[in-house]
């Protein structure tokens, strides 16, 4: 991964502005603290993606705070050093061509589950709807290279969940757009909190797999405006 050396050219400025604005949703739903967390999105038709600059304040984030990278994590345009998670995002885009958006947060309830190294069981209809089953736990991996990306891709293989809890780290979500990955991050924290609260009252009741399948099918293909 390289750092910026060129002047700002303003490539993909509209998409960068869109991704910058999506970071406001992470703040709105209390999924991040200080400058942690990031949103990225694949550039349609090009082997590029855009991602938040490392350590850039959410209050000051605009299109220029979003950096354009190639799928090896090298900077193509922008004067901000990209997120320290860039190599992980790049690995996901290289290996999952259907993924167009990736989000990373340290949202408190979901990250608490990751610190326990425990998947969130599918005991809510909202989980069946959005995740199609439990939210899986991924391996521990150090930040800085593509080890986290490898863990994300390996853990989500064969899963319907768009979210993974990387052990002792936090949440990574994927989607067909950056916005859908943000939604998955919001919903992940919501169900992590609710299942935690349920456990304080006793053991949550499981949902039968056939019902999980039915709920997932309805939500993904019938629910909402089509």
Helix content: 25-40%
Largest sheet: 8 strands, mixed
Percentage of residues in strands:
15-25%
Radius of gyration: 17 Å
The assigned structural class equals alpha+beta
Shape: globular
Element order: H for helix, E for strand:
HEEEEHEHHEHEEHH
Provide the spatial order of strands within the biggest beta sheet.
Answer: 4-3-2-1-5-8-7-6
Could you list the spans in which at least 5 consecutive residues all have pLDDT below 50?
A: none
Per DSSP, the total helix count is 7
Average pLDDT, rounded to a whole number, is 96
Total number of beta strands: 8
Short description:
This protein is of the alpha+beta class. It has helices spanning 13-28, 86-95, 108-116, 125-131, 147-156, 178-201, 209-221; strands at 38-42, 48-52, 66-70, 75-77, 101-105, 137-138, 163-166, 170-175. A hairpin with a 3-residue loop joins strand 7 (163-166) and strand 8 (170-175).
Overall description:
Helices cover 39% and strands 15% of the residues. It is of the alpha+beta class and 226 residues long. An eight-stranded mixed sheet has the order 4-3-2-1-5-8-7-6, sandwiched between helices. The longest helix has 24 residues, at 178-201. The chain is globular and about 55 Å long. It starts with 12 loop residues before the first helix and ends in a 5-residue tail after the last helix. The model has no long low-confidence stretch (mean pLDDT 96).
């Amino acid at each position: 991964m390289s750092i910026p050396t060129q002047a700002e050219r303003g490539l993909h400025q509209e998409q960068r502005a869109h991704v910058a604005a999506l970071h406001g949703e992470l703040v709105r739903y209390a999924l991040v603290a200080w400058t942690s967390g990031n949103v990225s999105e694949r550039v349609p038709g090009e082997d590029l993606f855009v991602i938040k600059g490392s350590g850039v304040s959410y209050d000051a984030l605009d299109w220029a705070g979003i950096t354009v990278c190639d799928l090896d994590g090298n900077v193509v345009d922008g004067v901000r050093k990209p997120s320290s998670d860039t190599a992980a995002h790049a690995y996901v885009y290289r290996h999952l061509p259907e993924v167009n958006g990736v989000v990373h947060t340290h949202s408190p309830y979901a990250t608490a589950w990751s610190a326990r190294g425990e998947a969130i069981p599918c005991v809510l209809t909202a989980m069946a709807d959005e995740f199609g089953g439990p939210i899986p736990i991924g391996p521990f991996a150090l930040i800085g290279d593509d080890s986290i990306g490898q863990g994300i891709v390996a853990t989500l293989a064969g899963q319907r969940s768009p979210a993974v809890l990387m052990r002792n780290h936090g949440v990574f979500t994927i989607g067909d757009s950056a916005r859908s990955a943000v939604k998955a991050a919001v919903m992940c924290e919501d169900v992590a909190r609710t299942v935690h609260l349920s456990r304080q009252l006793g053991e949550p009741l499981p949902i039968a797999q056939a019902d999980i399948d039915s709920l997932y099918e309805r939500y993904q293909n019938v629910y909402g405006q089509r």
